Amino acid sequence: MRWWNWLKRLFGTPGQRRLARGALAVKAIRYWEKQYTKLSATEILQTAQQLRGRARGGESLDGLVPEVFGLV
Question: According to the model, what pLDDT value does residue 38 have?
Answer without folding.
Answer: 92
